[in-house]
Amino acid sequence: MSVLPVLANLSDLHEGFAWVMVVGNGLAGIWALAAHRLESLRGRALWWFTAMVQLTIAVQVTMGVGMVAGQDIDPPQFHLFYGFVALVVVGIVYSYRQSLRPHRHLLYGYAGLFLMGLGIRAMLVAG
User: Fold this and answer.
1) CB atoms inside a 10 Å sphere around CB 52
2) Which phi and psi angles does 54 have, rounded to 5°?
3) pLDDT of residue 47 exceeding 90
4) Predicted pLDDT of residue 51
5) Domain containing 85: what range?
């Protein structure tokens, strides 16, 4: 069995899953910002959803690294940069979660929108 068809499908999966990452982080950001104003929107579901969509960034980066290593392709300029910056942003936001606890909805709200923007930029430079 050849590995190349699997890697070609990985490219399609990476491209399609990018939309999950972008839309998901945008929705999580909007939800967190709305929860800052409306207490009824706060709850565990918000944090589970936020964690899930932020995890999609790690999945995207892993798939991208797999494609670069497995197919020996040269990705578009700055595409990798946006992916790795998004991964670092998730880590930074997570590290500030306790010190900014009173403002955590704003922290995760703006971070979600920023991550959405990084995903859009990565998609645009990929063509």
Assistant:
1) 12
2) -75, -30
3) yes
4) 97
5) 4-126
Token pair of 110, please? 């703006």
Predicted local confidence at residue 71, as pLDDT: 75
- Sign, Cα dihedral of 25, 89, 13, 50: negative
Pair of tokens at residue 8: 């070609």
CA-CA distance, 55 to 70, in Å (whole number)?
22
Report the C-alpha gap between 9 and 76 in whole angstroms.
19
Residue 114 CB burial class (10 angstroms; 0-12, 13-18, ≥19): middle
Q: CA–CA distance from 99 to each of 53, 89, 104, 122 (Å)?
A: 22, 16, 9, 30
Domain count, the chain: 1
Q: Can you tell me the distance from the alpha carbon of 91 to that of 67, in angstroms, rounded to the nearest whole number? A: 23
Nearest to 115 by CA among 86, 79, 92, 83: 86
